[in-house]
Specification:
With 316 residues, this protein is α/β, with parallel strands linked by helices. It has two domains: 2-37; 71-239 and 268-300, Alpha-Beta Complex (2-enoyl-CoA Hydratase, Chain A, domain 1), CATH 3.90.226.10. It has helices spanning 2-36, 52-57, 73-80, 107-118, 152-168, 187-205, 220-223, 246-253, 264-269, 279-292, 300-315; strands spanning 40-42, 49-51, 87-88, 124-131, 134-141, 172-178, 210-218, 234-235, 275-276. The strands form two sheets. A seven-stranded mixed beta sheet has the order 3-4-5-6-7-8-9, sandwiched between helices. A two-stranded antiparallel ribbon has the order 1-2. Strand 4 and strand 5 (134-141) form a beta hairpin. The radius of gyration is 27 Å and the shape is globular. It starts with a helix and ends with a helix.
């Protein structure tokens, strides 16, 4: 009789633990479902849960550790450009498949899948707008679209934007994030490096300002061309910036690289970037830089003084 009671007691105790474990699992599933629904965001760096609305108000920068979460091109434009001043350019340009490239699937299928999934035509958005009332030409790369790879459309859109800025005498700002040139377009993608660089040189010849902003990650052919051609080069904190990948370099030189290798902080120390600017301070920093590099208007009395000086020189 006692053995039966002990058996029933043990069984009920096991049932209690099983129910507790089940309720715990349900609670965990409920928590994960709430996070998945977008109410909360778990920081990839410190693990702190932040209310998504608060995180967006802080421009997707963790309030606890300062980790800069990746943002898409639409969000970046909202952060930088004054409301109701954005005018997109060349939205009709679409990528093609000139090489009929195929790896595990045709390149044309990859493009279609990306366009349907993300809602972008390619990996960059360009346009004209204002930053705190100052006119600018802005290009924003989007890492979601095939790793922000630079194909023919990316090169063409950036080149057209730079040429339009040169014509209007606007400063150019490009927010860079990319894995490099798009291999599915072969040499055509590599030619974009030269095309964009040539447009930037004409912009510089016109004595106009160009500021690239290097975000995580900026690598490959983008780093080897327009990302490093700025008059003033800015970077976000902890951004990975480089040409070849860390593993490739280590295998080539057969040495272990420092932990901070290819970080924005390491590049600042070696003079490759001019400043590291937190995202929450970026718009104000750009405003100051653009204002400082605005052409100085010639006052009427200055024109008169110059003409008098020239006249007296001619008389002598």
């Amino acid at each position: 009789m006692a053995n039966n009671e002990e058996s029933r007691g043990l069984k009920s105790l096991l049932d209690w633990f099983a129910n507790r474990r089940k309720s715990g699992t349900t609670s965990l599933e409920r928590q994960e479902r709430e996070i998945a629904d977008g109410l909360w965001h778990k920081c990839a760096k410190c693990g702190v849960l932040t209310y998504t609305k608060d995180l967006k108000a802080n421009q997707m920068v963790c309030v606890e550790c300062g980790h800069h979460n990746r943002v898409d091109s639409d969000e970046r434009i909202r952060q930088l450009i004054d409301q109701n001043t954005w005018k997109p350019m060349d939205e009709h340009l679409r990528p093609t498949d000139p090489l009929q490239f195929r790896d595990r699937k045709p390149y044309s299928d990859r493009l279609r899948e990306m366009q349907d999934k993300i809602g972008l035509i390619d990996a960059v958005k360009t346009g004209l707008g204002q930053i705190n009332g100052l006119p600018v030409a802005l290009g924003v790369m989007d890492f979601r679209f095939m790793g922000g790879s630079m194909g023919s459309v990316v090169g063409e859109k950036l080149t057209r934007m730079i040429e339009q800025a040169t014509q209007r005498r606007y400063p150019v700002i490009i927010v860079c994030t990319s894995g490099g040139a798009r291999m599915q377009e072969g040499m055509l993608s590599l030619m974009q490096m030269a095309k964009i660089s040539a447009a930037l040189q004409r912009h510089r010849d016109a004595k106009l300002l160009y500021i690239p902003i290097l975000t995580h990650p900026t690598t490959g052919g983008v780093t080897a061309s327009f990302a490093m051609l700025g008059d003033i080069i800015l970077a976000e904190p902890k951004a990975t910036i480089g040409f070849a990948g860390r593993r490739v370099i280590e295998q080539t030189i057969r040495e272990k690289l420092p932990e901070d290798f290819q970080s924005a902080e390491d590049l600042l120390k070696h003079g490759f970037v001019d400043d590291i600017v937190p995202r929450t301070q970026l718009k104000n920093t750009l405003t100051q830089l653009i204002a400082l590099h605005q052409p100085i208007p010639t006052a009427p009395h200055m024109v008169l003084w110059e003409s008098m000086s020239l006249s007296s020189s001619a008389a002598e």
